Amino acid sequence: MIKEGVEKILSDLLKKSMTQVGNNYFTPQQVQGNWIGNPAATTSEVQETELRLGIQLPEDYKEFLSIANGYPTHNDAVEPSFLEVGQIQYLKTYDHEIVEIWKGTGNDETGAILEQSIIIAGMNEEQYFLLIPPNNTTTVWRYWKFASWIPGEIEYKNLTDYFLDVISSIDSM
To answer: Is 24 exposed, middle or buried (0-12, 13-18, 19+ CB in 10 A)?
Structure first.
């Protein structure tokens, strides 16, 4: 049931993206197939990444990966492109400097959160989408959109809420 809901949300996102930016932004195959995401990740790809990171990824993210192993954005100046599961990594590995900057600003809490976060979208783009694992202060995964141009993070309660927010922002344009 969850998978069908995520598929519908991604399908709606694609349709609204095509309406907003036009079909010329997408390849003919994407337009004809009515799909811009990569093919689904395999169970072994997800398991290999979990082993490499030393963590069990959240179920809703794994559900997303079972539909699309990577999903481009219609507007990389505002929304990040989701990576293939084999590309995700700890933010401190990818962008150690941003972690150190935040730790050095006196905002130790944000710096500590960034240090444990996993970047799943936005490599080489203006913003990141991060998964923050549970720790000794929280028992749930956290979901952040994070960029230098955002005054702090934008937190979502789950991945579905993020995609619904993207659809809503397209609708309001």
So the answer is: exposed
Is residue 158 pLDDT above 90, yes or no?
yes
pTM over 0.70: yes
- Asked if residue 156 lies in contact with residue 172, where contact means CB atoms within 8 angstroms, the answer is no
Cα(18)–Cα(31) distance, rounded to whole angstroms?
A: 8
d(CA 80, CA 143): 13
User: Looking at the 3D structure of the chain, how many domains does it have?
Assistant: 1
Query: What's the residue count for the chain?
Result: 173
- Specify the amino acid at residue 97: E
Instruction: Sort strands 142-147 and 154-156 into parallel, antiparallel or unpaired.
Output: antiparallel
> Distance of CA 74 to CAs 24, 46, 87, 141, Å?
11, 25, 20, 26
* Domain housing 140: 2-171
Distance CA 127, CA 145 (A): 7
